[in-house]
Design goal:
The structure is a single chain. The protein is built from 13 helices and 17 strands. With 425 residues, the protein is of the alpha+beta class. It has 2 domains: 288 residues, Rossmann fold (3-Layer(aba) Sandwich); 136 residues, Jelly Rolls (Sandwich), CATH 2.60.120.1360. It has a 6-stranded mixed beta sheet with strand order 1-17-16-15-2-14. The protein starts with 5 loop residues before the first helix and ends in a 5-residue tail after the last helix.
Length: 425
């Protein structure tokens, strides 16, 4: 978890951009720190921004009346809340903050560190697609099941405003047991999961004033199965959710339960889907490139249909390197046989996703180009402090923030262009 002061971290990130040769970002805060600030002529990597027009209409700071929800779905780049956290910060600073939104219930994996909330749990197990437990799985591809003894989980908002809406998503089942929910130490509310059929449902906890902490308890058999919970505010502003699975490919979308996804999309009503897969596919030497395009397109189309046909923004996979583990790594781009180098299938995967996005009328952001192209992750790993991790696959917290700022800049430039167009009555 990042422990450096936010301002210090950003100054390091700004200074490091010249090393990466991806242009200066010092003017971003001045450009977009207020709603009146104009866009600047800076390098951009966003293709087909016109596909985002319905999102821009929902986001329009002249007419927004309710929360605008953005869902980012992907692999470990999304599971880490560094890129999405910085995007959330930028969007909410400009358009207003409507809270953290939906998250997987409890602590789904080690080192889980969601921003804007603190989460703890005791006596819960987490069911994932490969566990074959027969539990319905939603967008987070994980469910929390209670152990027989007293199972407790808590979520606490770190925002001063707290939240005025809390909801929990769970599975009903014949002879289902019960769990309780209490806010800020108040009287527990009992929720039974018993039903004649197994189904995904949701409980909204009535709140007569903003709250900051919710405790959930379950005990007994059969276990209670929770898919997620929600802390947000019913006010105009942005909710930016990240739903990522470590090690995932786009195939994860084929493993989650369609009924659960449809239920969640109907509840969330997102204005934009951001899809970020491709890194794990690109590192898979056995990947069928001929079939990948059709599989990627089919999975995203199904996700979009469940979301009501909203705009899609595909984030192409960033640069990634590996080297012969039998020897000491040498710098990327050198003639040394042990040099860091991109997997052979990573660039084709990137090209396929770009082509599929264009064919389906989706926007595409060139993350690889924004990083600086070939060997950029190697250069980022050598900055001080590093903007990429030693594995040459993931970025550091600072690196993800730099990328988020570039993505946000491109989106806001497209938004300002959209706003400048004449409106038809």
């Amino acid at each position: 978890m990042n422990t450096e002061p936010r301002g210090s971290l950003n100054r390091v990130a700004w200074a490091s951009l010249t090393i990466l040769a991806i242009g200066t970002i010092l003017s971003l805060e001045a450009c977009f720190g207020s709603k009146e600030a104009p866009p600047q002529a800076e390098p951009q990597h966003l293709a087909s921004p016109e596909a985002l027009a319905p999102f821009f209409a929902a986001l329009d700071d002249r007419t927004m009346r309710q929360p605008v929800r953005i869902l980012q779905i992907g692999d470990s780049h999304t599971a880490s809340d560094s890129l999405s956290g910085r995007m959330r910060e930028r969007f909410q600073a400009r358009f207003g903050a409507a809270g953290r939104g939906w998250l997987p219930a409890g602590v789904p994996y080690k080192y889980y560190r969601p921003q804007l909330v603190g989460v703890s749990e005791d006596n819960w197990r987490h069911v994932k697609p490969n566990d074959h437990a027969g539990v319905a799985l939603g967008l987070d591809a994980v469910a929390a099941e209670s152990e027989p003894q007293d199972a407790v989980m808590t979520i606490e908002s770190t925002e001063p405003e707290g939240f005025d809406r809390f909801a929990v998503e769970y599975l009903t089942q014949p002879d289902g047991s019960a769990f309780t929910v209490s806010a800020d130490g108040g009287a527990p509310v009992r929720i039974s999961t018993a039903s004649s059929v197994t189904a995904v449902t949701r409980f909204d906890l009535p709140l007569d004033r903003p709250a900051h902490r919710v405790e959930l308890r379950a005990a007994g058999r059969p276990p209670v199965a929770l898919l997620g919970w929600d802390v947000e505010r019913q006010t105009p502003g942005v909710i930016y959710e990240n739903h990522g699975t470590i090690g995932a490919t786009v195939g994860i979308l084929e493993q989650i339960t369609p009924e659960a996804v449809s239920f969640e999309m109907a509840e969330r009503r997102p204005a934009l889907l951001i899809v970020a897969f491709g890194t794990n596919e690109g590192f898979d030497d056995r990947l069928d490139l001929e079939g990948y395009g059709a599989r990627f397109a089919s999975a995203i189309r199904a996700l979009r249909r469940a979301a009501g046909g909203v705009p899609v923004l595909v984030l192409g996979p960033p640069d990634g390197n590996r080297h012969d583990r039998a020897c000491t790594a040498a710098p990327c781009g050198s003639s040394d046989p042990c040099a860091w180098d991109a997997p052979a299938k990573l660039s084709p995967v990137r090209d396929i996703e770009r082509r599929v996005a264009a064919q389906n009328g989706w926007a595409y952001w060139d993350w690889f180009g924004a990083m600086g192209g070939v060997c950029s992750i190697d250069r980022m790993s050598q900055t001080n402090p590093p903007l990429a991790m030693p594995d040459h696959v993931h970025l550091s917290s600072a690196g993800y923030q730099v990328m988020a700022d570039l993505l946000f800049s491109d989106l806001m430039r497209a938004y300002e262009t959209w706003k400048a167009q004449p409106r038809t009555s």
